[in-house]
Amino acid sequence: MSYHANALHVEKHLLCLRECGCYISIHDLVSLASALNLSLAFKKRSLSIQTLFLDARAASLHIKLLEHMCLLLESKKEQLLRYTSLYPKTHTLLEPQINRIEATKSLLERESALHVKEIL
Question: DSSP alpha helices (H): ranges in 16-43?
Answer without folding.
Answer: 17-20, 26-35
